[in-house]
Automatic annotation (TrEMBL):
InterPro entries: Spore_coat_protein_Z/Y
Organism per entry: Oceanobacillus aidingensis
Pfam families: Spore-coat_CotZ
Highest classification ranks of the organism: Bacteria, Bacillati, Bacillota, Bacilli, Bacillales
Keywords (A to Z) from UniProt: Capsid protein, Virion
UniProt name for this protein: CotY/CotZ family spore coat protein
Amino acid sequence: MGCGKNYDTGSCVADILKDIVDAQNDIVENCCDTSCEQSINDLLCTNEVTNDLDTVPVILYCKDCKPFKGFGTTKNHHNKMNPILSSFIFRVKKVDKNNCAILELLLSDGESCGFDHMKDPTDQNTEDLEATGICITVDLDCFCHVTCLPAIRAFH
């Protein structure tokens, strides 16, 4: 038997948290100002005439609970590699049937975050995030948590 009143998932923590959510939902409307659900709803909202949002920025966390930082680069007009950039914030481009995803690094306009510039996501500027064109492929089975940021327009 589970630890919760109404659930038996095999996880005492999950059972109790589900009971808490049920009790809270009975008392107040369960709305979050920022959540994956809210960001997706904002992205898909067609009620606003000026809705030009095209991206739900995400931060992924590895199974050790540390935020994932991706790296990549582009070529300059002399066909030489630019400095390597890094980001904790991504735009999901594609997820395949094997749980592999293509993620695009998002950076603020003019930001060039090298290897040592950012130690965690709070070091990254989120103002005016833009698509970089730098994409990486990841195995989604390596992650245990995702944080969705408010929907934005990343392509200008």
